[in-house]
Amino acid sequence: MAQRTVLVVLFDGVQSLDVTGPLEVLTGAERHTAGAYRVRTASLDGAPVRTSSGLTVVPDEALTRACDPHTLLVPGGQGTRSYPPALTDWLRERAPRAERLVSVCTGAILLAAAGLLDGHRVTTHWAYCATLARDHPAVQVDPDPIYVRDGALWTSAGVTSGIDLALALVEEDLGRDAALAVARHLVVFLRRPGNQAQFSVRPAARTARREPLREVQEWITEHPAADLSVESLAVRASLSPRHFARAFLADTGTTPGRYVDLVRLEHARRRLEDTADGVEEISRATGYGTPEAMRRAFVKAFGTAPAEYRRRFRPAVPPR
């Protein structure tokens, strides 16, 4: 088995977990399968960098002296908003030589600035997806997945999703058993496929500005099994159904029906992950009414039925 070299790019203001998360996964895979990876870190001039949390990281080498890697990994962080031009110049010249190009979180901003994402489908931290799409219209930005693969290009959402992406790389390179062993050691999810939503319902819709609408949002969140029709919610807001629907959309950016769908899906998802309750019980408690209605919602949102979702996404249990 040929050893895969992995080069992690460092810069001032990098997010420490964007670096250490994938590093722990890849070095863990190396412990499981000796000779699988050789992981190196490098800054522009080889000097230590200060992360956004204040941690100082000493790289292995300078980017200008680094050999072309099999996998080039570019993390994100506050530094992606004030990077030196020499960094994107280096990426523009050297990144195409790598067999696999990976970004974590807002590392995608650096790749886009170097012109490496044009024509590709990518993702990044949900808070920066709109900015990335606006500044780089030739890039197809998908704000929903926790990671996206487009050929040899892999991009991930924010922070901990870099661990999910790294586990997917290990599974592709070394197989499921190796990825499972690393996940168990790190006590993280066995597997969160890239099409799992990267954030909960709260960031998916704005908090309403007007007090009656905010109260309705809270009511929906706290009572997913209640009558959440537009007519019922409008009564709670002391508005006509038509006025309520328009005001809710204007304040939150989504319709009442869509918000209800998101809340119910979030409640059901969390109960599948956190409890041993049956699908029928969860479907009643979260407002779906029947297991079939809940199954349709999960297939539409996640591409899988509730039982399979639970099997895949509950945390792995470390060996005793």
From TrEMBL:
SMART domains: HTH_ARAC. CDD domains: GATase1_AraC_1. Residues 214-312 form the HTH araC/xylS-type domain. Keywords: Transcription, Transcription regulation. PROSITE patterns: HTH_ARAC_FAMILY_2 (PS01124). The keyword Transcription regulation applies. This is GlxA family transcriptional regulator. It comes from Streptomyces vulcanius.
